[in-house]
Amino acid sequence: MIIAPSLLAGNHAAFGKDAIRASKSGADWLHLDIMDGHFVPNISFGPQVVKAVRPLSKLFFDVHLMCAKPEILLDAFAKAGANEMIIHVELGDQVEPLIWKIKNLGKKVGLAVNPPTHISHAQPFLDKIDLLLVMTVNPGFGGQEFIHECLPKIQQADAWRRERQLPYRISVDGGINDQTAAECARAGADTFVAGTSLFGSRNLKAAVTRMRNAVHAADPALADLKV
Ligand code: DX5
Ligand code: ZN
Questions:
Q1: Could you tell me which of 109, 62, 65 has the C-alpha nearest to residue 81?
Q2: Which residues contact 73 (CB under 8 A, 6 or more apart)?
Q3: Does residue 187 have its Cβ closer than 6 Å to ligand 1?
Q4: pLDDT tens across 131-169, in order?
Q5: Which residues are CB-contacts of 120 (< 8 A; sequence separation ≥ 6)?
Q6: Distance from CA of residue 37 to its chain's centroid?
Q7: CA 194 to CA 79: how far, in whole Å?
Q8: Active site residue 173
């Protein structure tokens, strides 16, 4: 399993400190939420912040682009040190060329699906991606309630993965805490992005361990799953 604290819930006056905190917490990845004020009604941070925190952490940087025009940012995030870039399936015709552009940059590719979007929209791309991100809140803000209606999408994504023997990870993002992470693990998720529940706790290391144990208890097979 992968536990990925989301820096959005960190201290925006001290991202470097929180990237170091995440690195020492036993977490597997660092999730970086990029919001452009168009695709979502909020703005977060850009490639310069990613570049600035990159030397402070060896964690895999999972960059989630909630952006209407990711094509103008891919080069900059690749250079800044992203390991994976996630784009949204809601971008329609742009999805396929964006996937190839990210691959050509030598980065892993993720595809995200918002709560109102049917999971079938992701189906044509499943053999081209490294990760499918099932959004479990409407993106734009941290600290929202987990939307339980998204669970069947995880089950469907897992069923497709088994049927077609594809290697993509299934990630969940939004309202993830120990309990909802366990529910998602039972539905088939293996990658858990959590902002508020992890960075909000005083002891990040203990919080990451608790989440890992909750997921492990829900699905013991995930303990051995490697990146
Ligand atoms: C939501 C972002 C999430 C966010 C999750 O728009 O994509 O990654 O950081 O935050 P929590 O865990 O607080 O819901
Ligand atoms: Zn995210």
A1: 62
A2: 34, 46, 47, 65, 67
A3: no
A4: 999 999 999 999 999 999 999 999 999 999 999 999 999
A5: none
A6: 19
A7: 25
A8: yes
Rounded-to-integer distance, Cα 188 and Cα 56, Å: 32
Sign of CA dihedral 200, 188, 114, 15: positive
Is the pTM for the entire model greater than 0.90? yes
Residues 62-79: b if buried by 16+ CB within 10 A, e if exposed: bbbbbbeebeebbeebbe
Q: What is the pLDDT of residue 89?
A: 99
CB–CB of 153/116 below 8 Å? no
| Cα–Cα distance, 74 to 218 (Å, whole number) | 36
To 10 degrees, the CA torsion angle through 193, 2, 83, 50? 40
Token pair listed for 104 = 């050509």
The alpha carbons of the chain give a radius of gyration, in whole angstroms, of 16
What are the tens digits of pLDDT across the range 68-127? 999 999 999 999 999 999 999 999 999 999 999 999 999 999 999 999 999 999 999 999
**Is 219 considered catalytic here?**
no
**Is residue 82 within 8 Å of 53, Cβ to Cβ?**
no
Distance of alpha carbon 213 from alpha carbon 191, whole angstroms: 14
Tokens encoding 215: 């997921």
> Quick check: CB of 30 below 6 Å from ligand 1?
no
**Could you tell me the distance, in angstroms and rounded to a whole number, from the CA of residue 32 to the centre of ligand 2?**
7
Tokens of 23: 């690195």
